[in-house]
Amino acid sequence: MVSAMDQVSDAPSIAQAAMGPAVTTAQLMAVIQALLRELRGGDAPPPTLDDDLERALGIDSLARMELMLRLEQAFDVRIFEGAMQAAQTPRDLLRALAAASPRGAAPRAAPEAAVATPPLLGAADFPYQAQTLLDVLQWHADRAGARRHVTLLRDEQAPQSLSHAELLERARAMAAALQRSGLAPDETVALMLPTSLAFLECFMGILLAGGVPVPIYPPFRASQIEDHLRRQAHILANARAVLLISDEQALPAARILHAGAPDLRAVVTADKLRALGGRWQPVTRDRRDTALIQYTSGSTGQPKGVVLTHANLLANIRGMGQAVKAGPNDVFVSWLPLYHDMGLIGAWLGSLYHSVSLVLMPPQAFLGRPSRWLRAISEHRATLTGAPNFAYEILATKVPDDELQGLDLSCLRAAMNGSEPVHAATLALFGERFGGYGFDGRAMMPVYGLAECGVGLTFPPLGRGPKVDVIDRQVLHDERRAEPVDAGQPTAMHIVCCGLPLPGHELRVVDEHGAEMPDRHEGRIEFRGPSATAGYFRNAERTKALFDGDWLDSGDVGYVVAGEIHLTSRVKDLIIRGGHNIHPYDLEEVVGALPGIRRGCVAVFGATDPHSRSERVVVLAETRLEEPGARAALRERIAQLSIEALGLPADDIVLAPPHAVLKTSSGKIRRSACRSLYEQRRLGQVQRSVAWQLARLWLDAARRRVRDPLQRVGSALFAAWLWTVFGVAAAIGAAAALLPHRGLRKQAARAIARAGLQACGLPLRVEGDTSLRSGSWIVVSNHASYLDWLVLTAVLPAPACFVAKQELARSAPLKWLLLRMGVHFVTRDDAHASVEDAKGLVQAAKVGEMLVYFPEGTLTRAPGLRPFHMGAFIAAAQAGVRVVPVSLRGTRSVLRDGSWWPRREPVVVQVHAPLSAEGNSWSDSVRLRDRARERIAEGCGEPVLAE
């Protein structure tokens, strides 16, 4: 089969076919890639023929002109100007080159039409233009069919391996069998298979047959078989699965499920399906089709079926791969079960897409002897791995030293830790213990994700290592504010930072009324992005509750610092006790570390108290101790730890036998289920008297009931006052625009801005020299809020003139007002007009006019310093004037884009030392831009976002 990439490599280009200069696709891409490296200052996925020059590649109008000059120089042509301006993609540039004339000759008219070329799929190792998972598999089978895709380790038996071509062949055979058994497009098939090559071929076979796979987990604990089957029956019924594929070992349990699933037509094994044979009939699938229904673990209730399309999964896989720079030289070792999203999407499908060699271990291999995971990493020279926190905890504290002899973990560059709360103590213990075995602590990556976003949502910068925020636990509980404290304080609480949203994704923290919270204020975490599900399968009520406009409720609680998320709890895990928000994780961790308690087998939850309006704090802990004196001492110690960790005593401490604490398949504590058993009196309980605390707790609750409404009223009054002040200031400003001289108008505008900010009561601090009295200047600032204009007008000298986008001139009154205040307009969507505007600004700078740019070009609600456009820096280099970087911090929290609800937060303006260009060339302008961006990034306190 001849691939599209092969066709592009061997066929003549559009330009050649049109009898223009002999330009190949590769030559064009080399010129574009060289420019992108200068603009971005680092590696980036190679461009494709159909990438949008501005939106996808970040080539603005001035960079477009630089690109035209480079293309003309590289191919010794003169490009038809209209074709260059109209070009939206590299494919259009090929057409422009096809119409180009040799240097010195009169330019030819642009052709009316061009011969189509096969699409460029991207670099040789990544299927950038794949629309479905099936495209990904086909892409790799075509280009690297013999390359080993998966190696399955099997205890004492020889490993099994599978190449891309073998997986495709087996999946097609499975698809044929499924079609022969009657599977129709879009019908669901449940997969109750252990980690095996059969799981992979069945999953892909279902997709090739047009079906939708629904992974569910096999029975894993005999003591909870009833609970397990009940939950799986719920999934089968909700998913309307027509087939259930199991293995021989789980077949008896599968047959029991058959009786309770009305739509289930048959229970089969993979072997029986293979024996059916048949001929595969291709089924058309596209990016909008459902690729997976991933049922949530149900740690906070009944499992819900998250519907994920091919587009959702590919966006998530691409984002995670970019975060860890995954590629064909990587090896991923995973013991995570394939029925769990972290193992299925993060480990397998992510490795498939990025051509990573995947080494699979059954979960039982890790649970039986955890050191096998490390041994596999060492022997296979794994560069990537991932697991929940408990796995790192086990390795750090439980594995005997003699099982670690000869380990070499220096190969690991990314060890992802997610799927459950990440504990700072675990990170420290793991790094300390395995540093001697070559483990680089910077490889540890605490991450955050959820099934509703595929699997991953936030990743920290690669190679940074864990970042821990130490805050005051009491302030968090009482005021929902993350106040930094010294680690030695008795109320210190260690919260692990889980990084920034993946490219194209956003998150925010909101209060109980849906208002967005500023940094270091705790609230519910909401997110949106291309990986986000459209909802739950056949569950309209839960789907409706999931959405807040176009934002999705994660069900988690946390706060943001400099754009990075810090998780404190799950919404349903929060215990509201006497006006306090109590997070259970700290207490669970310290109780789990007690001698006599089974580590990781502690659940702290709130239970209904029939005698008060608050919840009771219940500690359920597993122990094997039976002697009454030892159990009494253990309860006393837990009670003491409860006061130390929560500031409150536990109302009930239940010491239960092993396996009493219910967990999900991935090891998460099912606190809601434990609570239900407790309230049904199906757990042993010890009633404690809490009379002496009730008075204090009732006072706290009363204080909260009074304080919260007052805070809401105060916020509403502040918002109303701020908009009133802004309205008055705008009216006075419009009157000031009638003054005869621009100098007077600018001085009046500065005075109005200062008075307005002072009247609003916004705390404003200015750092650095704002006088800028001698010489010519171009001021560049980050753009976080519409408030930035007002702040800079108040802070900078009166003669400063803003440079604004032409779109603001569409309103005649606004245009008149801004022109009267000396604003210069620049065109962004017309390359020729943009160049002319830039020339005018160069002349303005040369004659000594102080220009103020927002080089990001726009603003968004999400924190982060975005890529800079080149206009300000080209003007500075060509006019020979210095650039003054200015960092704004706090304006985004005061008035965020898309919100009309301002908050009273401190604002800081930091004026940095001026910078000069080394010359007046394009490269000099790029270097000046990069230096200015570095200074602004240092002061704005927000993450630097990639191009």
Describe the structure.
- The chain is built from 31 helices and 36 strands.
- The protein has five domains: 4-102, Non-ribosomal Peptide Synthetase Peptidyl Carrier Protein, Chain A; 133-368, ANL, N-terminal domain (Rossmann fold); 497-571, Roll (Luciferase, domain 3), CATH 2.30.38.10; 575-688, ANL, C-terminal domain (GMP Synthetase, Chain A, domain 3), CATH 3.30.300; 737-940, Glycerol-3-phosphate (1)-acyltransferase.
- It has a seven-stranded mixed β-sheet with strand order 4-3-12-11-13-14-15, sandwiched between helices. It has a seven-stranded mixed β-sheet with strand order 30-36-35-31-34-32-33, with helices on both faces. Strands 20, 21, 22, 23 and 24 form a five-stranded antiparallel β-sheet that branches.
- The chain is an alpha/beta fold.
- Mean pLDDT is 83; it is low at 1-20, 106-124 and 684-698.
Outline the fold blueprint:
Blueprint: H1 4-10, H2 14-17, H3 25-40, H4 61-75, E1 77-78, H5 81-86, H6 90-98, E2 101-102, H7 133-144, E3 148-154, E4 157-163, H8 164-180, E5 188-192, H9 197-208, E6 212-215, H10 225-239, E7 241-246, H11 251-259, E8 266-269, H12 270-276, E9 290-295, E10 305-309, H13 310-324, E11 331-334, H14 341-353, E12 357-360, H15 363-368, H16 371-380, E13 384-387, H17 389-397, E14 414-417, H18 424-434, E15 444-446, E16 458-459, E17 468-472, H19 473-479, E18 492-496, E19 500-501, E20 506-510, E21 523-528, H20 540-546, E22 547-548, E23 551-561, E24 564-570, E25 575-577, E26 580-582, H21 585-592, E27 597-608, E28 615-623, H22 628-646, E29 652-656, H23 671-679, H24 691-736, H25 742-760, E30 764-767, E31 777-781, H26 788-795, E32 801-805, H27 812-820, E33 824-826, H28 831-846, E34 851-853, H29 871-879, E35 882-889, H30 891-894, E36 907-911, H31 922-940
Parallel strand pairs: 3-12, 5-6, 5-7, 7-8, 11-12, 11-13, 13-14, 14-15, 28-29, 30-36, 31-34, 31-35, 32-33, 32-34
Antiparallel strand pairs: 1-2, 3-4, 9-10, 16-19, 17-18, 20-21, 21-23, 22-23, 23-24, 25-26, 27-28, 35-36
Helix pairs in contact: 3-4, 4-28, 7-8, 8-9, 8-12, 10-11, 13-14, 17-18, 21-22, 24-25, 25-26, 28-29, 29-31
